[in-house]
Description:
Layout: E1 41-45, H1 49-60, E2 64-69, H2 75-79, H3 82-96, H4 123-147, E3 151-159, E4 169-175, E5 180-185, E6 187-190, E7 194-196, E8 209-210, E9 224-228, H5 232-244, E10 247-251, H6 263-275, E11 279-281, E12 286-292, E13 295-300, E14 305-308, E15 310-313, E16 317-319, E17 352-354, H7 365-379, E18 393-396, E19 401-406, H8 409-413, E20 419-425, H9 430-435, E21 441-447, E22 453-460, H10 463-466, H11 468-475, H12 480-484, H13 495-503
Parallel strand pairs: 1-2, 1-6, 2-3, 6-17, 8-15, 9-10, 9-15, 10-11
Antiparallel strand pairs: 3-4, 4-5, 7-16, 12-13, 13-14, 18-19, 19-22, 20-21, 21-22
Helix pairs in contact: 1-7, 3-4, 3-5
Domain Pyridine nucleotide-disulphide oxidoreductase dimerisation: 393-500
Organism: Georgenia daeguensis
Keywords: FAD, Flavoprotein
Amino acid sequence: MSTPSGPVPPPAVEHTGAATAEPDHRRDHGAGASPVREGSRVVIIGGGPGGYEAALVASQLGARVQVVERQGMGGSAVLTDVVPSKTLIATAEWLTVTEQAGELGIGADGGPDGDPGALRADMDIVDQRVMRLAQKQSKDIRARLEKEGIEIVAGTGRVGPTISAEGTRLVHVELADGGERELVAEIILVATGATPRVLPTARPDGERILTWAQMYNLTQIPEHLVVVGSGVTGAEFAGAYNALGARVTLVSSRDRVLPGEDENAAELIEGVFRRRGMTVLSRSRAAAVRRTGDGVEVELADGRVVEASHCLVAVGGVPATASLGLEEAGVELSESGHIKVDRVSRTRAFRIYAAGDCTGVLPLASVAAMQGRIAMWHALGDAVAPLDLSTVAANIFTAPEIATIGVTQKQIESGEVDGAITRLPVARNPRAKMLGIKEGFIKLFSERSSGVVIGGVIVAPRASELIYPITIAVAHRLTVDQLANVFTIYPSLTGSISEAARTLHLA
Length: 507
């Protein structure tokens, strides 16, 4: 799932010799870990990024691996969340780039009956392609795991409460085609993800009131879509459907959209939304959403009512940890239902690990995958570095995109971090001029005492790609001078990253 960026501390779990006490750069076998044990029986519940990446690592280390998955390999990330939503957004992006068409000298020939020949989206075709690509990715993941000798068990798993004298547990599986099966596990990884949060006053019906997982049921562009929630998911869908031609109203309970993001980036995106015709209702909380025949009514807390054809409720997710037998097995859950883990993905229960959105550490597919890999490296005795959230890059797929890494400007301005800040507008970059890009910026943050790059923000088309050199700099503690003294292509957007680094010389 797409999520707010910036470091978020994992839930604290105290272990004797826990990896949380280790410096980020150290690699060890972890407390209680043993050398790699070939033939260890590993059962993974959940086939999303955390699960299938863990399965590949465990198989590589010689374990016998079984993955229990009920909806298809890749889980919701591939089938109903990240892959389909970003495919939809990629389609919408083609329509936003036409904003610069006239300036670039590009026009469309007129069609019959005075049709100007403007680009438009056919939602039936768009959604068919979205789901086709999601299914293709799921099949590719399944084929890869089967090639590695990993068994995929279609069904729903539940962890047994007892440990045998040999140190094994049973995982009880309700098979998708009926019947039951018991799997013997020496090591268990829970990677069950999260589901859309449902409000009691806005229950989805899959037709007019929708969660983010149900948006692909639409075969036509909504006449008027109200998006409740201005976090990452809400902003991404609002921007995409606005570009696809829908009238969009975004209901935000906060002062601005994307309240958890870099303030300058969020203000820019909100300005873009308004310029493109979106209605943004700030400081407006949705009290209820009701179906009204062929439409919906969204009642706001102040008594106003917004009438529309459809409503997307994007108010976060709920960890999928119920009915898994976790607490009976000794796994500690937070009040929100998230599994508490340390930085090597251990729970309090013997040889039970967890990864992904069900842990509440940082709900990104990349973090889930890393948690899963770390879990298996640790459980099977391989060298392992504890999870370091300061090196996690995140991206919001609006147009333009927002990519972030490392410390934030707020941390520097508050005095929490002694850093220097530089900001360059993308519009002055020669390549940006050629492409007609007028909005966006590059921020770079460095440590004053050493000049080490400690963070950055990029707001630009393909920011998800452009953030990579800054991510490398943060992860490997490169200085601004080292970043600046690397050749860049001229003209290129990455040239502005080098320029930003040069402005921090001696800062």
